[in-house]
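Hello, quick one for you while I still have it in my head. I'm working through a protein record and want to make sense of it properly. Would you mind checking whether the tokens look sensible for this chain? I owe you a coffee for this, so here goes:
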Amino acid sequence: MKVTALLATLSLIGTGSTTPPKPPQAGSLSPRTAASPKLTYFDLSKAESFGPAQSWNEQSDRETEIIPSAVSPSRVAVIARALYLWLVFTPLLSTALPAAWSPAFRCNLWYPLVCWTLARGGAAWIKWAQWASTRPDILPEQLCAQLAKLQTAAPAHSYAYTKQEVENTFGRALEEVFQDFSENPVASGSIAQVHFARYEGEKVAVKVRHPNVAKQLSIDFRIMRWAADVVSVIPGLSWLNLRQSVEAFSHTMTGQTLLDVEGNHLALFNHNFRTWDDVKFPKPIVSSEAVLVESFMEGRLVSDFIGFDDVSLVGDASGSGASAVVVRGRLPLEVAHFVVTRGEDLYLQMLLVDGLMHADLHPGNILVTMASSNSGTVSGKTQITLVDAGMVASLKPSEQKHFVGLLACMGEGDGDGAAAHVLAFSDAQTCASEACRAEFRLAMRDLFMSRCRGYGTNIDLALVLRGVLSLVREHGVRIDVNYATLVMNALCLDGLANALLPDYNIMDAAAPLLRAYAKLESFTSNGKAEGGKGNGLLKSMGIPIAMKRKRKHDAWVNERLARIDPSDPGALEERRKLLTKTFWNTIGSMGLNMGQKKM
């Protein structure tokens, strides 16, 4: 352990000290000077004062502002970090073979070791674990259960560092800025941790960036780039295109270290969803690059309801090992339906109307507040809150058009149309020859014939998207970073629905909105309306009408789910029928039915 700690310290040589200077005594700080971190105060009543949204790949352009040495970390730092990661990962790799052979060892020892290893690997590894925990469709449920712990319980830094960072930010003693401040963090993620406090008489959450996180990321991604370059020269592995993946992920993570940008994104989201009374975002109050003060939001993390408390091994009738899990308390079915349907509404509103996507929609970033019921009287309102807006995607109209086009073609079972949209996912398309494009179109057509037959056929969104990504790799099709973000968010949404509401099909539920958008696109592109403002006006009016009708249907289903008596012998079948009765069944009444493609 001493050797590991020494290597962790050496890995930051040349990139700044790992130990912060001793903070000044309370009350001894002078007023903030020009050299102090820049503070931004927010007034949500003045939308014109908000800065423009910055996609995470744009945020990364500011990397050298916060890590001046990140461009060229010392050789000693890189070697020490590589050795540290080797020591941390060695126990995991050396026990992989026994884990493959023994289910008991795998579930009870190796999966917890995976979680422990990734937690100590640093921010990049923790972020991957957070995403992976939402994918029980591609990873074992027991592993997802372990990784889910890192959504809010990643390693935390000391209170002494938090106090110093806050005081450096405000130029005053912490006690002069906050009337109360919790020493223990209530949550810790890959980039920062959160403390509860009281600011100007109001209960707030204070987000403080972990020490040296950006510097460590810079070194880690240098190592990852080197590893990707090595893999690329190994015969048979160059198709993985790992270098491009590492570059995209490095931009993603670097961008999230800028908490002042996150504060601005929260202001924009609050403005965009100001009329949604059951969807909330924290209100930013004041921010700097390393500290963000925002309103305190009530609720429980959705991830609390889709994890697993305990994993044990039992034997099945054949004598072989089979895993069994004890599931945490589930959400009431009507609340689970609300979370999934409103989560889908959020995604579609951001994609179809706003063009500003929250790009980190895992369950650890979603809070749910449930209406309480006493003596048959319901008080309060069920609502969801999205937190952690450090990672967003600001979409261009062309990006909206082609990604929505892909989803719409999936709904219509149109493989040729889907291929055309995917080939437009980059202005510098590497699959440029007509032969390459023809082969890709043919492969997409075959994929859709086997896995994606259109609305009403129970489309498995994750299965189809993974199939599309497999063809993208196989045929060398390039997709730009915002499209990759949109795909990942769609996979997270699908994973959330599968975990909370397995009988719900999000593609069928999205049909009225996707068809409304497609019809409006067709209306404008055929010359019936001019582009620009006219196009935007049509969408800003037509899409909300379709969404309002979907919301009305979802509320109707919620109400009936709440009325079902669990003791009724037919309760399960009644629930199944309600959950599979999506708004797709009533599209025709909206006058937006474009006709399903005949297969």
Remarks:
- The first strand starts at residue 40 and ends at 41.
